[in-house]
Amino acid sequence: MLALFKKSAAVSLPAALLFTGLALAHGNVTPQGVNTEGLPPLSGELTENPYRKDQKVYAKAIEIGSSAFNQNCARCHGLGAVSGGIAPDLRNLPAGGEGDEFFQMRIRHGSVRNGVTYMPPFESVFSEQAIWAIRSYLDSVRVDN
Ligand code: HEC
Predict the structure, then answer these.
(1) Does residue 118 have its Cβ closer than 6 Å to ligand 1?
(2) Which among 24, 35, 93, 107 could bridge 99 via Cys, Cβ 3.0 to 4.6 Å?
(3) What is the residue with the minimal CA distance to atom 40 of ligand 1?
(4) Which domains does the chain have, with CATH numbers?
(5) How far apart are CA 73 and CA 37, in angstroms?
(6) Number of Cα atoms under 13 Å in the Cβ half of residue 137
(7) What is the DSSP letter of 87?
(8) Following CA atoms 94, 95, 98, 102 in sequence, which dihedral angle do they give, to the nearest 10 degrees?
């Protein structure tokens, strides 16, 4: 009984943060550009994460992606990519190239169905480096289920 209580107390704080985030989402939240200094330049619209190949670059990409994610995505997808149930839990994206392709399509174009924007497009906000830094971060928190 005590253990159960502790567990629910632990989840209530992130939930509170998420709702604060949602309140902000209804205001005018300007997407934050991402400083990608330290990452090799990229060109074109890649469909696979180019930063996985080099461990040092990959570590830098994860660090930059973590901050970019928390500034731009966490208000819907949750801090640390742990979804509170409002938007999909991004720790469950498929690994490797399969997940990359879906991820880059979604982050560029967002999700609009029947005229309703579920997720805004980030194509005009992020550089190619920023997109793959965020993907690298999501790799680092991925869980199998
Ligand atoms: C305004 C809220 C909002 C923001 C901000 C947002 N998303 Fe989303 N995202 C959603 C919703 C809602 C969905 C589900 C869309 C659907 O069902 O069509 C989604 C879906 C996704 C998916 C597909 C997941 C799946 O399993 O289907 C990915 C990948 C994704 N978002 C990445 C991101 C990233 C990366 C960012 C930050 C750059 C971001 N999102 C910012 C609301 C948001």
Answers:
(1) yes
(2) 93
(3) 73
(4) 48-145 (1.10.760.10)
(5) 20
(6) 23
(7) S
(8) 60
CA 143 – CA 103 distance, rounded (Å): 16
Atom of ligand 1 nearest to the CA of 86: 12
Ligand 1 centroid, distance to 88 Cα (angstroms): 7
Amino acid of residue 74 = A
Among the listed residues 49, 57, 51, the one whose alpha carbon sits nearest the alpha carbon of residue 93: 49
The DSSP call for residue 25 is H
Tell the residue nearest (CA) to atom 8 of ligand 1.
Answer: 119
Out of 26, 106, 113, mutate this one to test ligand 1's pocket (max ligand atoms within 8 Å of CB): namely: 106
| Parallel/antiparallel/unpaired status of strands 116-119 and 111-113 | antiparallel
Residuewise pLDDT in 10s, the chain (145 residues): 444 444 444 444 444 444 444 444 444 567 778 999 999 999 999 999 999 999 999 999 999 999 999 999 999 999 999 988 889 999 999 999 999 999 999 999 999 999 999 999 999 999 999 999 999 999 999 998 7
Distances (CA, A) of 39 to 33, 42, 58, 93: 15, 9, 9, 23
Find out whether the beta carbon of 103 lies less than 6 Å from any atom of ligand 1. Answer: yes
